[in-house]
Amino acid sequence: MMRNNHSRLEILLTSLKLGLTSFGGPIAHLGYFKDEYIDKRKWLDDKTYADIIALCQFLPGPASSQVGIAIGMLRGGFLGGVISWLGFTIPSVLVLVLFAFLYQSFTLEEAAWIASLKIVAVAVVAHAVLGLGGKLTPDRPRIAIALAAALVMLLFPSAMVQIGIIVVAALIGYVAFSNQAESKVNTFSVSITKKQGVMSLSILVALLIGLPLLSQAVSNTYVSLFDTFFRVGALVFGGGHVVLPLLEQEVVPNGLLSNGEFLAGYGMAQAVPGPLFTFASYLGTMISGIAGAIIATIAIFLPSFLLIVGALPFLSELRKQSKFQGILTGVNASVVGILLAALYDPVFTSSVNNGVDFALAAILFGLLRFWKTPAWLVVIIGVVLGTLLAYVF
């Protein structure tokens, strides 16, 4: 029991550090996770980490949060997943709840340190792409899949196209790589049974059907709030950036928030570390105070827990099957390409505006890649250097 307590404390402290330093959005989060969970702490190997990313790319919801929840569950059971989510999520929730009360006087859109954080994300994502690419695309066929995925994403950027790329890559992997499956795959154990997994998915379906009916029947603000945010969290594909316009359609036309109030929170959500889904905390506070923040936050993330609990018990066994290995081989190669495309747009295009920005990104990348500087320290160095350069140039 003492050992589990130590493990869960480690999960909390590690995820909290990531929640305080993981700037740059969902793609950058995967880079921070790799640096902390895989490279530094060796909780997983690269292949298992890539397989979990591939699984979460298939699921609706915030992919980076789901990856963090899954790693927490593998490390410390269901409670480990909850602790991992709390550590990664609470910092940005607190900032956005506070901002909801102060947003009229809290103008940070043009701050130099926010621009610096975006440049830090360029270095982190580039480092992650290079690291994962070396492991997941070691030969020409997989490099070709990655490049094709990047090309299609750059030409036709959308969440549905991303899902289509993953499906096509899965089919290619099934056909081309099943006969190259590894005979020995590092398995992992999870304390969730298959029966519990099926129950979790059943609860998800029941809530998706039942909540809208309950909301119409009782006409209660909190029930309606829970229904709205749960539905968005369960049905949105493409991660955090996609959820923002969907939430706008739920709250602005219905008169729950003005367009100006929504856009103020939208800008702040892009500037804080941690998952973009915590934008729900801001919206919940604006709509119904602290109680609204709690309800909206729990509701939008609950589908992620139900989906991960439903999927994890089956993943380890499926990874032993040669055909499933082939599918994951193709999907993992496509994920490298999707990350490569995201490195350019939106990460690079929204962060690097001139040669000074590029120089700072190159310095930070060098610190990560060659000097093995911890990601949290790179964040601090990036903010300090970026702020100084902004005053000089």
Q: Could you explain the architecture of this structure?
A:
The protein is 79% helix and 0% strand. It has one domain (1-352). The longest helix has 40 residues, at 63-102. The chain has 393 residues and is an all-alpha fold. It has helices spanning 2-21, 26-40, 46-58, 63-102, 112-136, 140-155, 159-176, 194-218, 221-235, 240-251, 259-271, 279-318, 322-348, 355-369, 375-392. The radius of gyration is 21 Å and the shape is globular. α2 (26-40) crosses α4, α8 runs antiparallel to α12 (279-318) and α9 runs antiparallel to α10 (240-251). The mean pLDDT is 85. Belongs to the chromate ion transporter (CHR) (TC 2.A.51) family. This is Chromate efflux transporter.
Itemize the secondary structure elements and their pairings.
Blueprint: H1 2-21, H2 26-40, H3 46-58, H4 63-102, H5 112-136, H6 140-155, H7 159-176, H8 194-218, H9 221-235, H10 240-251, H11 259-271, H12 279-318, H13 322-348, H14 355-369, H15 375-392
Organism: Virgibacillus byunsanensis
Membrane topology: Multi-pass membrane protein
Keywords: Cell membrane, Membrane, Transmembrane, Transmembrane helix
Mean pLDDT: 85
Structural class: mainly alpha
Residues in helix, %: over 70%
Shape: globular
Low-confidence stretches: none
The biggest beta sheet reads:
none
N to C succession of SSEs = HHHHHHHHHHHHHHH
Q: What is the number of strand segments?
A: 0
Number of domains: 1
Q: What fraction of the residues are assigned to beta strands by DSSP?
A: under 5%
Distance between the termini: 56 Å
What gyration radius follows from the Cα positions, in whole Å?
21 Å
| Count of DSSP H/I helices | 15
